Amino acid sequence: MNLSRYTNQAFIQQHQLAPLADLQIIHQVKSTHQLDDVLTLFNQVCSKGFDMRTITGLVTAYSGHQFGTFNPALGDGRVLNLDVNSVGLCAFQLKGSGQTPFSYGNDGRLALRSAVKEYLTNIALAGLGIPTIESLALAFSSERLQQQQLQHSSLLLRTAQTFTRIGHFEFLYASSSTEDKQHDLGVLITDCLAASATDLGLNKTLDTLAVKEQAQMLLNNVVEKTAYLAAKWQSAAFCHGTLNSDNMSIAGLTLDSATGEFMSTFDPSMTPNAIDQQGRYAFENQPRQCLFNLHVLAQCLTLFLSPTQQQHSLKQFYQSYYQHYSMLMLAKLGLNDFIPADRQLLSELLQCLYDNKLDYNLFFQWLSQVDSLQLLNKNNRIQATDIHQHTLANTDQLIHWLRRYQMRIEQGEISTCQRHQLMMKSNPNFVLTKPILNMAIEHVEHADFTALSCLINKLSHPFLTT
Ligand code: AMP
Ligand code: MG
Q1: For ligand 1, atom 14: residue with the closest CA
Q2: 355: buried, middle or exposed (CB in 10 Å: 19+, 13-18, 0-12)?
Q3: Is residue 36 lining ligand 1, measured as CB closer than 6 Å?
Q4: Alpha carbon distances (Å) from 89 to 92, 257, 453
Q5: Ligand nearest to C-alpha 106
Q6: Can you give the pTM of this predicted structure?
Q7: Which residues does 63 contact at the CB level (< 8 Å), separation at least 6?
Q8: Bridge-partner residues for 56, per DSSP?
Q9: How many angstroms does the Cα of residue 16 sit away from the middle of ligand 1?
Q10: Ligand 1 centroid distance, CA of 241 (Å)
Q11: Which of 82, 311, 322, 375 makes a 20 to 30 Å CA pair with 411?
């Protein structure tokens, strides 16, 4: 985003980084040509005696629908958008960067626990091939949070193609004058498309498109990318936990993942968010909530798109979602050719996992490691029982499903070797479960960073290679 192109001063401003005492780096990714400048800057910021106020960047205000209710003034996400010369079209942010004109009285700081959660969750998501903003570096300060005195303040460096949220569109739509709204939303649309120009093949032609065409292109693109994101979350059993529209990325990336969690025992009603008592953002509701947020975005584009144009775009969501989801789930089963009966095979599997309280990822690991023709022995008993330590609630149901699965495999076109390879790259061998995450947070809180690199390495390479 370029400050001078926007007219609404309440939306975007230049701001200095607020000082934070005694920063100590906990972890940073390996530098690459593209990341050299930004990691050097982060190291400078964390060095003794450095005047952090010399670092300036852009801050932006956003609104959002929280639990279905519109909140016009959510703040700035306590982030500073850095202006770093780098190779390629990447945006960089410091999260926990302090107060700004858009903090509305909040301190703009980031609690260490939450920072470690986001840092590791982003890495785990990226390792699994789930679109996400990416963690680059994390530091903690000797300063404690005003609100929670036990918690250290921290600073998180992250990168993305763009950090624009649906909430940014909502802010401009709700709080600008009609003239400013038309202008600034047009600029934001162009900025978002520019960030995806290479993916969309738009490098040379973006300027030649009228803003209405750009708006249609943007909405179509966000719908498709969000459908893919939702399919990836559901197939990996990841629950974001807070799918407010301000936490939805315009680039279809997982954003603000600190409330998220990978499911262990399969339960569609699972939610990691303790305040979500109604289960609005529960695992099974994620695709529906994504679509709700896309409706919110479409509403913000009414100056450019007719209701028919919006509907046309939004209608693609479920079609695309189911297509992606089916193929991702089939790959987990070692299949690559979808037939209509697979829908039932998948739904029966999920029912079986739920009824038997099976661990989602352990089950798929077991399935990928056991020869599929050996899943049941001659007496129709489950061959390897180490998929679970507890007694199955309904063994017959699982045996029935495994028999159907074996028959389906025999009908399939894929060779045994290809199936095995497909399953090995579709079913992670290592997942950031809640106990692993909590242990990592505890270690960091005790300033013990020794195990962190090993954990990060495992999260970055969660699949067994054959
Ligand atoms: P996240 O989605 O990770 O940015 O977290 C959102 C939560 O962070 C909000 O519910 C607030 O509790 C807190 N928060 C948001 N803005 C600020 C701020 N400027 N200062 C401190 N805390 C904030
Ligand atoms: Mg957020």
Answers
A1: 77
A2: middle
A3: no
A4: 10, 23, 28
A5: 1
A6: 0.96
A7: 70, 71, 72, 73, 74, 167, 170, 171, 174, 175, 246
A8: 16
A9: 19
A10: 14
A11: 322
Amino acid identity for residue 1 in this structure: M
Cα atoms in the Cβ-side hemisphere of radius 13 Å centred on 404: 16
Residue 175 CB-half CA count within 13 A: 21
Cβ neighbours of residue 351 closer than 8 Å, sequence gap 6 or more: 397
Per-residue tokens: 190? 């162009």
User: Residue 258 and residue 240: Cα distance in Å, rounded?
Assistant: 8
Phi-psi region of 194 (alpha: psi -120 to 50; beta: other; left: phi over 0): alpha
| CA atoms of 64 and 296, how far apart (whole Å) | 9
Map residue 148 onto helix, strand or coil: coil
Distance of alpha carbon 444 from alpha carbon 438, whole angstroms? 10
The one-letter code for the residue type at 395 is T
Q: Which atom of ligand 1 is nearest to the CA of 108?
A: 20
Q: What is the pLDDT along the chain (466 residues), one digit of tens a residue?
A: 788 899 999 999 999 999 999 999 999 999 999 999 999 999 999 999 999 999 999 999 999 999 999 999 999 999 999 988 666 678 999 999 999 999 988 999 999 999 999 999 999 999 999 999 999 999 999 999 977 778 999 999 999 999 999 999 999 999 878 888 999 999 999 999 999 888 888 877 888 999 999 999 999 999 999 999 999 999 999 999 999 999 999 999 999 999 999 999 999 999 999 999 999 999 999 999 999 999 999 999 999 999 999 999 999 999 999 999 999 999 999 999 999 999 999 999 999 999 999 999 999 998 998 877 778 877 777 776 566 555 788 888 999 999 999 999 998 889 999 999 999 999 999 999 999 999 999 999 999 998 999 999 999 999 977 5
**What is the token pair recorded at 89?**
């079209």
Contact 108 CB / ligand 1 (< 6 Å): yes
- Annotated active-site residue 191? The verdict is no
Q: Which residues contact 213 (CB under 8 A, 6 or more apart)?
A: none
Ligand 1 lined by 98 (C-beta under 6 Å):
no
**Which one of 76, 246, 256, 359 is the catalytic residue?**
246
| Separation in Å, CA 34 to CA 85, 87, 92, 251, 294 | 9, 5, 11, 20, 32
Q: Which of 196, 190, 164, 174 is closest to 299 using CA atoms?
A: 174
- Specify the residue with its C-alpha closest to ligand 1, atom 13: 77
Report the alpha-carbon distance of residue 310 to residue 295 in Å, rounded. Answer: 8
Contact 250, 165 (CB under 8 A): yes
Q: What is d(CA 171, CA 180) in angstroms, rounded to the nearest whole number?
A: 12
State the greatest distance between any 2 C-alpha atoms of the chain, in Å, as a whole number. 75
